[in-house]
Design brief:
- The protein has two domains: 211 residues, Rossmann fold, CATH 3.40.50; 188 residues, 3-Layer(aba) Sandwich (Rossmann fold), CATH 3.40.50.2000.
- It contains 17 helices and 14 strands.
- The strands form three sheets. Strands 2-1-5-6-7-8 form a six-stranded parallel β-sheet, with helices on both faces. Strands 11-10-9-12-13-14 form a six-stranded parallel β-sheet, sandwiched between helices.
- β9, α8 and β10 form a beta-alpha-beta unit.
- α4 packs antiparallel against α5 and α8 crosses α14.
- The longest helix is centred in the N-terminal third of the chain and has 20 residues.
- The relative contact order is 0.12.
Length: 405
């Protein structure tokens, strides 16, 4: 079976998007499928039309944007359509598999219909909602409504829709798409790639000013929807009852300066360590410093609908975690069994849940084991990617593939 994946961007760029993609492709290879991979112009400037990265071969799309305002997306889709048609004629796939955003789906739909190749569209998030959080779009504004309209247009015309979680599936079905045309391929992790949490590096802990402290931690990108402002707001209440507790924030992003200013304003700057971005091969050392990971996402469409990867990675390592009860977290975390949930957007509830969790030390080993077991039994890439097989095999009979003509 030949699958041509159409991607926004890929490794060597690092993001949750590229990590999910690489995991899917490697698991499909293990199933014996032949995969091909084309990235859109959003990969950025490229030096060659093709590139090998970590054992995966990528076709790239060269693109020089025009100068007329407002035409960037149309030019991007035009370049991707031309490149996709050329690659499809070369590799003759059985299925075109376009991944979010809709800027990839529309070219795939056009090329698929032109060449008689069935099209799968994988929705990883509604990018109009992410744009609202990033401040590049206004909820229900013109750009928001246009993007949402294009998504619905594609849903009605592709041969099958896949998505990453139940929240997104429900939203897609609510737009009039038949339930049997939408399949959840959930986020997962390679459990074997994560070792159970090790002992903290005493030298690193002292270097960061965390010696003799219990550590609340977050490791990831500092976006507004992650709710790290709530963690800082809750901290004075936590500190009043647990003065040995500190916060470790590892990473960076658009909210970094604002969070640092908030810590200074709250008078907690000395108890909050901003470690910055660290090399990928050093991340484990920082995880090992954390006693309790905190994921305080705000409640909004994006977080209610979409499941994140970070809690799964934490559970795979046998970590303890506290998270807001947004829909994306509720699909992953069983309160009191694999972690603890608190009412979203309530810093007082966050503080109380953290304090209660820290007081439940006799239960910690059972919760760690339950989280790891959940990942091993329900959220491995082998289990998730196997769900594609029935979709692909059914679609191979829908239309005659290009290479059979």
């Amino acid at each position: 079976m030949k699958i041509l994946h159409v991607l926004d961007h890929s490794i060597p760029l690092h993001s949750g998007y590229t990590f999910r993609t690489a995991a899917i492709l490697r698991e499909q290879h293990r199933l014996g499928w032949e995969t091909f991979h084309l990235t859109s112009p959003k990969q950025g400037a490229v030096d060659a039309d093709e590139e090998d990265v970590d054992g995966l071969h990528f076709y790239r799309t060269r693109y020089r944007p025009g100068t007329l305002p407002g035409l960037g997306e149309w030019g991007l889709m035009g370049a991707l359509t031309r490149r996709l048609e050329a690659v499809a004629r070369e590799v003759q796939p059985d299925v075109l598999h376009a991944h979010s955003p809709v800027l990839n789906a529309l070219p795939a739909l056009r090329v698929g219909r032109r060449l008689g190749i069935p099209v799968v569209y994988e929705v990883r998030a509604f990018w109009e909602d992410a744009a609202v959080d990033h401040g590049t779009s206004r909820e229900h504004g013109l750009r928001y409504r246009m993007t949402r309209g294009f998504e619905s247009y594609v849903f009605r015309r592709v041969d099958h829709v896949t998505t990453i979680c139940e929240g997104l599936r429900r939203d897609i079905v609510a737009r009039g798409i038949p339930q049997d045309c939408v399949t959840v391929i959930p986020n997962a992790v390679d459990a074997e790639a994560f070792r159970l949490g090790g002992a903290p590096d005493a030298e690193l802990k002292a270097q960061l000013g965390l010696a003799n402290a219990r550590v609340l931690g977050f490791i990831g990108s500092f976006y507004a929807y992650e709710g790290l402002d709530l963690l800082l707001e809750a901290f004075p209440r936590i500190r009043a009852q647990a003065p040995d507790v500190r916060i470790l924030l590892v990473g960076g992003g658009p909210q970094a300066e604002r969070l640092q200013e908030q810590a200074r304003r709250l008078g907690i700057a000395e108890q909050v360590v901003f470690a910055g971005r660290v090399p990928h091969d050093q991340v484990q050392r920082y995880y090992d410093l954390v006693d309790l990971l905190v994921y305080p996402r705000h409640s909004m469409r994006l977080t209610e609908l979409v499941t994140p990867l970070k809690p799964l990675e934490a559970m795979a390592q046998g970590r303890l975690l506290v998270a807001s009860d947004v829909g994306g977290h509720q699909e992953l975390i069983r309160h009191g069994e694999t972690g603890w949930l608190f009412p979203a957007d309530d810093p007082g509830a966050l503080a109380d849940t953290v304090l209660d969790t820290l007081a439940r030390e006799p239960e910690w080993d059972a919760v760690r084991a339950a989280g790891r077991r959940f990942v091993e039994q329900e959220r491995t890439w082998a289990r998730s990617v196997a769900r594609y097989q029935a979709i692909y095999e059914r679609l191979r009979g829908v239309v005659e593939p290009a290479h059979a003509r």
